[in-house]
User: Fold this.
Amino acid sequence: MNYYSLNRKAPNTTFADAVVRGLAPDKGLYFPESITPLDTYFFETIENKTNAEIAFEAIKQFIVPEIPEIILKTIVEDTLNFDFPVVNINKNISTLELFHGPTMAFKDVGARFMARCLGYFNKSNTHEVTVLVATSGDTGGAVANGFLGVKGVNVVILYPSGKVSDIQEKQLTTLGQNITALEVDGVFDDCQDMVKRAFMDEELTSQMQLTSANSINIARWLPQLFYYLFAYKQLKSKYKDIAFSIPSGNFGNICAGMVAQKLGLPVKHFIAANNANDTVVNYMTTQSYEPKPSVQTISNAMDVGNPSNFIRIQELHDNDFETLKANLSSYSYTDEETKTALLELYASHNYVADPHGAVGYLGAKAYLENNEAHVIFLETAHPTKFLDVVEDVIKKTVPLPSQIEAVMDKEKVAVAVSSYEELKQFLLK
Ligand SMILES: *Cc1c(COP(=O)(O)O)cnc(C)c1O
Assistant:
């Protein structure tokens, strides 16, 4: 499968090249040249397949033969060695728990998959790659964990100082080996801007192969389509119409769900659930896309003012507003509303959510006011990753899972960075 740049000013290229580059030379995001639906038999028999079988069948058209089938099978099996349970909330709402991976963030899947692909491409050890990634919280830990010890790959993570949770900070600053954390004096958008600038800096890119592990990278983005298939497998016998509510920041996860839909997955509707960062909500009412500086919220992994994958979503809908509107609704919620939802989930449904999941739950409820479907909201992080907020709202201690407990006593190691020049100096030395 070849990939083209959404800026359409760069040559089409292979999966391998697109993964190693991250962004196309014209700074556009890569997009697959075609998406061929899976046959109906695949969906009819999905409940008889393992998650790894489902994932392999769904993703192979995008990757084989550059990664041979047999290797891709192993990559998928290694990536998916944990559960993706759907938990019922009420008659009309369920949640798909995506936090059972090693860092308890849904980004584990994308990071583990991408790391294994890069490891394969780098197997002859000819080209060292530096993965440069900006995180608003969860990406950093998942990427650090997914890439730890992968030969020929150095990982540099930028995170906004004081704006990620203690647990998140520990997860990305305590691993060592090929992982370095840079603590940036600024907000997430500053981190993301520095990363973008580094990719455009020819002095830098002529000396080292830089790539991204944000959802702009297709190897991080595409495997997220698995979640929607796993949810369908679990609920297809119970409900006819299924919609998904996705707590969204950079809109990579929801966009991958839309790829699953293109593959033939029956999805009635997508709901983008947002916090106060409402660029897309505004777009869906005004048709005018106006990026804004990000606002800090309690669901900080979604504090994104200019969601990078929205352009892919538009492409998937033929850049036609009406087509998009028929498939996507978008809502925005304040921190107060999010807390109320956290409490309601706990008090009325005995479910401890995290703030991102709570925003997803609100999106599900909003959609159900005027529509009929069974809505699955994605629970994108374990509640203990946002312990302060969650415990404060539900007035109950939430026990730390073992994955998290293991990092809490480790010592934080981070390099302070306050400008692009400092980042550049760091990378060059
Ligand atoms: C990254 C993240 C999101 C947002 O996902 P996008 O693909 O960027 O839209 C939501 N919740 C959590 C916990 C995250 O880490």
